[in-house]
Amino acid sequence: MSSIKHVAIIMDGNGRWAKRRFRPRIWGHVRGSSVVSEIVRSADDLGLKALTMYAFSTENWSRPLDEVSTLFRLLRKFIIKERTRILQNNIKFRVIGELQSLPHETVELINEIESLTSGATGLHLTFAFNYGGRAEILRAINTFQVTNPERLMTEADLSELMYRPETGDVDLMIRTGGEQRISNFLLWQMAYAEMYFTPTKWPDFTPREFCKIIEHVSSRERRFGSICEQVGLNSSVERADTNKSAYFQGVTFNV
Length: 255
Ligand code: IPE
Ligand code: IPE
Ligand code: MG
Known about the structure:
By secondary structure, the chain is an alpha/beta fold. It has one domain: Undecaprenyl pyrophosphate synthetase (3-Layer(aba) Sandwich), CATH 3.40.1180.10. Helix content is 42%, strand content 13%. The protein contains nine helices and six strands, in the order βααβαβαβααββααα. It has helices at 14-20, 25-46, 65-88, 104-116, 133-147, 155-160, 207-218, 235-238, 244-248, and strands at residues 6-10, 50-57, 92-96, 124-131, 172-175, 194-197. It has a six-stranded parallel beta sheet with strand order 3-4-2-1-5-6, sandwiched between helices. Helix 4 (104-116) links the parallel strand 3 and strand 4. Helix 2 (25-46) packs parallel to helix 3. The chain is globular. It starts with 5 loop residues before the first strand and ends in a 7-residue tail after the last helix. The protein binds 3-methylbut-3-enyl trihydrogen diphosphate (IPE) (2 copies) and magnesium ion (MG). One 3-methylbut-3-enyl trihydrogen diphosphate binds at residues 11-16, 56, 60, 71, 177.
């Protein structure tokens, strides 16, 4: 069985895709938005637990106004167009990011689909919109400091205070468009994610390439800090962090 349960995607390359065709950048976003529906369908068919799509970063506000408003419009359009299919397929739909600075009608639409799908048990489909990984971490720290002024924060505390803690860590991050960076996406949740960078621009990305990447990455060995011999063994027996002092008994460190 594949160890890839949560896939996060940086959907990049729309602007360059359009430019190469002598079209405005916005055209690339419109074409890219239809690919979103295909990849969601494919993630659902593959039986993934979660799919998180980066659709608008906190830094994307610096783009021209018509481009920003197109991206907002495409989010609304996606929700309206896909609503029936999301409900029929038992998909849990959420948006993470600073939603209070989004237009009122967009927030209403998001709230409605989130509450309609709150009891869904299928694919967790999350859109990161007006999202920034640093902002998410800072928000969590500030909330913690207000509610627990008397103690130090643990990893579990911070994980619990992410926008959607139940979605958990990312197993695989895919970035289209050829850039090899994470651009402030899910910084906390990607600590041990596998990374895959494809030169394919987002409007050209297909379910076939998506499946191939998952297949390819599933064959990589994920060690989480252990050594090869420990991987695949019962983690409660073999992981050093479950019983550190016993693990180090008899070990000689050559410095
Ligand atoms: C990604 O495509 C979409 C968003 C950032 C919203 P870009 O618009 O960044 O496309 P390129 O990277 O300029 O080609
Ligand atoms: C990342 O792409 C954000 C989204 C895909 C929404 P960008 O195109 O904004 O990232 P940079 O500017 O190349 O880092
Ligand atoms: Mg880009």
